[in-house]
Structures are given as structure tokens and as C-alpha cells.
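Minutes, structural biology subgroup

Action item carried over from last meeting: produce the C-alpha cell record for Schlafen group 3-like DNA/RNA helicase domain-containing protein (Paucilactobacillus vaccinostercus DSM 20634). EB confirmed the sequence was re-checked against the source entry. Recorded below for completeness.
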Amino acid sequence: MNFTRDRLQNNQTGVFTIFGDAGTGKSVILSHLFAKIQLLARTDNTSALYRTQNYFLVNHPEVLKVYKAIAGSNTILLKKDYQRPTTFINQLDKHNQAADIVLIDEAHLLLSKSDHYNNFYFHNQLQEIIKRSKVVILVFDQTQVLRMKSYWTNERLNALLTPYPHENYVLKKQFRMSAGPELLDWINQLTLRRTVTELTPEMLNNYDFRIYDDAEEMRKAIVMRNQQVGLSRILSTSGYPSTLDGGKHYICEGKFKMPWDQYNYTETPWAEIPATIDEVGSIYTCQGFDLNYAGIIIGPPIYLRDAKHGRLDVDLTKHTDVEAFKKRDDLTDPAMIESVEKKMIMNSLNVLLKRGVYGTYLYVHDPQLRRLLLKQFEKITQK
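Output recorded by EB:
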């Protein structure tokens, strides 16, 4: 708030970035901050924020539904305050307007190249938002970058922000998952360093973490949890047939057979629709959301390359999300592209593994990796 007031009073463009891992409360902070800003803007004629024109942006249709629902039950917040970035840019240009304060949730999902399919004809959404605003406050996590058209790193973000007065803050405490630091570190080693470290009994303290040899048994357990506490769903990485053609495409693992999530035309987020207990969610329907229990399928692209040292690798030929890896003019080195694509697949697993508040159940397609994890899990649960 101090940063915002200073920028407005000095009529100086500024950017404030909040960094934090999945589940560290970035969206909660941003949501409360926006409510405070709009209260001052619409009711306090003694405030420097009075009558400022402010917006909350998120490039995720499912998350946007949540914010609009919150606005519908709040007398200060309006549904029109919450927009997709492209809508915001195009509407301001159409009416020759500018914004005062803009908050951006999930800024790692902003487009960093033109995307004519989504009516974005510039080169970088964040850059265009800053041009049209006085103060920009955003939350960012480079380990949640999932698509080439939204390719970001901390270095790329810093290079874009260098011309502007800017400040940063890093959130470190995990609020979503009730798991301890030992299990969170195990997840980070698995997804960010592609290394399976030893499971220990401490990782199961106050958190329901399980490894399954049978995906169907895992499904039954998640259904039971959903009946008990609600908001429990099956999620999966890529590697199974998936095409946006309106038809159902199934994930099959032994006796397990369930369709991918369908496009959600309702105003209710996917995870809150009761019928989606019979679907498999993807990163596109669960990113940014809390689940009480998450059953995760690690699909065919991720496999155990080196059993002795627990090293994982990614087989890009088994990746089935064709929209994720569209070419970019600024990435031409084949080795670099391969490295980025593999990192994005592991990022998607990182996103999935940090959804469950009370528990995470895991099934792995690759037999070698599944055996290794089961051996470790049985070792600590049979004591």
C-alpha cells in the first residue's frame, strides 16, 4: 500500500512483484489487497486512492470464475473489476483509457508472445499492461510456467521490469498443504531436480501421503475422501489422448478408465462441480485451486532413467498436450527448446503435487519408477 501511494503521489509508474511457491498464499494476499484498494477508491475521499480506476487480472478462466463469484457477494467489488489480460488491454485501447492500479494473479500465465487465437497482437502481455497502468502489483512463480506462449523465467521478468521503479517480496511459508517441510522438499527434489530422494516416516506426519500400485484403487480412495470431506479429485499429467474436439478422451491404466475433464461452460469452477469426481483434471482446471485430497497420475512422459541414483527424465515424444509447445521466434536452439519443454512438464507435475490440503495419493505409469516409490513407501509404512 505504501509503494502504491508513493507511485500515485509522484505520478510515477511502478511495479511490485510478490514471488512464492505454489500454496504460499500469493492469491490470498492479492485478493485481500484488491478489496482494500477498492474500498478506499470507492468510499474514502481523504485517500490518495479515491476515485482511482483499478483492475484485477488473471489469465486463467477457472480462477477468474472464483473472483467474479466473490465480487457478486461483495458490495464494494464489481464483476467488471476482474478481467482476462487481453480483454483489459483491448477494452482500454478501444475507449482510449488508462488504469491506475492493476493487480495480476498468476502472472506466470501471462502471454509472452502474440497469440492471435486469443486476440492478443502485441509481444508481451505484462509489458502492455504496464504501459496502460500507473501501478502494477503481480504474483509470480517461474516453477508454474506451463506453455511456450507463456514462457517466463525470473531473469526474463527482471529484464522487462528493469526500466521501472520496482520492489519485490518473497513468500516462503507453505499455507495450502498441511505437510511438513520434509515432504515439500521431497516434492521439490522430484519435480525441480528430477531426483527421487528417500522417503522418511517424518514425511507422513500430519499429512496423508500414499503411493499406489493400482490406479483404480487410488480412484476408489479419492471417491471415499470426496464423500467424507468433499473437494477431492483425480488429476493427471499429460501423456494420454487429449484433443479439444468436444469428445471424451480416456486415461486408461489397468482397470482404471476415466475421461479427461470437459470444457467447463458454467460459472462454477471445475473442482466444485459434483460430477467432476468422474473426470480427470488437468493443470488447466486445477492450477490455482485447493483440493482437500488429490489423486495424482504421473503419466508416460516422466520415467526413471537411472534407478541407482533415482534420476528421472522426460520422454517428449510421449507428451500429448500439443498446445503447450508452440514455436517461438526467440527460442531457436534445439537443445535449449528441449530443456525448456522438459522443465515445463516437470513444472506441471509440481503444480499437481501441491493441490492437496490434507492428502496426496500418487500413481505412476512408468513401472520402474512406480516400483522404486512403492518400495520406499512400504519401507516406511510397515515399520
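Discussion: The longest helix spans residues 334-353.
Next step: EB to file the record with the rest of the batch.
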